[in-house]
Amino acid sequence: MPHHIRFVFPFTAIVGQEKMKKALLLNAINPRIGGVLIRGQKGTGKSTAVRALADLLPEIKVVENCPFNCNPDNPLEMCDSCYERYTRGEELKWIKRKVKIVNLPLNATVDRVAGTLNIERALKEGIKALDPGLLAEANRGILYIDEVNLLDDYVADILLDVAASGVNIVERENVSVAHPSRFILIGTMNPEEGELRPQLLDRFGLQVDVDTITDPAQQVEIVKRVEEFESDLAGFMAKYEMEQKSLKLRIEKAQKILPNVQIAEGLLYEIANVCSKLAVSNRAPIVVARTAKTLAAFSERDNVNKDDVLEAMELALPHRMRKKPFERPYLPRQKLEELISKNNCENHTVKDEGSNFEKSSKPSGELLFDASSPTHINLEGCRRWDSHVGKSGRSVTAKIIGGGRGAYVYSVIPKGKASDVAIDATIRAAAARAIGCKEATLKISDEDIREKVRRIKTSSLIILVVDASGSMAARKRMEVAKGATLGLLNNAYTRRDKVAFIAFRGASSELLLPPTSSLDLAHAALKELPTGGRTPLSHALLTTLNMIQSEKMKNTISLKPSIVLITDGKANVSLGGEIRQEIVELCGKLKETGAQLTVIDVSEDPFTPNYIEDIIKAANAKHVKIRNLTDDNLQKIITANMLSKDTPLQF
Description:
This protein is α/β, with parallel strands linked by helices. The termini are far apart. GO terms for molecular function: ATP binding.
């Protein structure tokens, strides 16, 4: 038995972050709220609070030796095996245990998350067997995903399906196994490392933003408590024991009150009206109502009041109403009160005010351009580097073993235990070995097992990095670049490409459009773009590098980054060091990511010093010198950039 015991920092000892703690407690009382997403920088106590939550939850009854934590008292929360025993009248032995927190690591495979059918065992023993995954372990518990915004898209799709249905279905080789999987979904993320897909974002019931505590008194208290926790563990835990027990009892009492909480129909109409004005999803009013009822139960009341509704809206609506990528969700209570008080005003609308309800100030000297019509970008038949192209010219693929994804193309002898058994090849191998044998039954042995090699579609990440400083404003090149982005997205669905748009001007760069294949999102994000100011080229290269590294964490196999940098090569804003050295170092790191960079040189004066040559040499980039950037020219450049690295550009 392991003697190393991991002690968790008490929930009641966490300093500050009251909004985050309340959101977690509300989900503990009522898991039907749908979980919580916690956004904030590192070191703000996000993970500490999540781990501490489990210690507050009451014990649950589970069927003994059931890998799915089935509820022995509710047949609707049982797996097939437990349900069959229940219908036969068999007594289900049960035990009590604490609610689990199951961590879903970013590098978890699909089989580890969803579970996998043990095909090898089924072939040898003739039985249907499931090796449970994390979704089985998390049933009736907490599924915690740190850095959820970096989660692989395929795994995220599985989570969406299971979170919606409460059932996980594993299908392999025409064999299907299902089991219950209902959990409190808790995710934490640092917005600086990338945004969350809108579909997954809406799946979180509540969202809170946590900031670094800046109050000196609170910072001192944090230091004292952490030092005491590490130097006198037993004494520290005893110090907060009574507070922990008191909060546990309060949670249990709220859970008993919750079924009897009522919400007036008038308040339901207020919720519906506000959600309608904010144009949020249909899930929003459901979450608001459930949260308001839970707040009432937590306050030991059986009726919802207006304050409960307002607080619920603050937690459940902001992340559902963002209009721009990387826009911080914000919905002040004052604005909510105004919306509720003006429900009868038909002409009142919030849509034009934006989700931050603040008018954006535009520095002097800026110009605003609207996006041009989508540029037609013909990528059909283009061969992307390090890839395989099918007969149609569209399919760009890579071969993988053991991933369980993609089309099955052939089989190989596995190295170690096979995770993706090829049944046809396994049977052929066993039959070939059995030739001349008198036994009528075909037996499968370890040496017969074969593993599938699959071909998956790869995708390109096309990044347009555009100089929006004063030197570029005169000719409206931004308009052409935005038109090209929309044109690229017309191809994105069939080719599984993603497009991103980075503009740099003033003191820094801005990721206006994070990697997406959504044409609607691009239209909204690139509707207007201010230009003017200084030229922070180093910032743009750093933003590009960070984004590629973030996307590669999600999709290490199939991502092919391609960068189109539109610049005159000038730069007059550094990251803190010498500009030329910064540019060379960043371009070298971009080269290491495998990204193909094309520099569209729009400089007009050949005698004015710039950094074009430094970029080309450090990044091994293609160079296109062009004076008049048009839609047609940009189409040719992007098409050529998708070809083999050695293909010359001709204009």
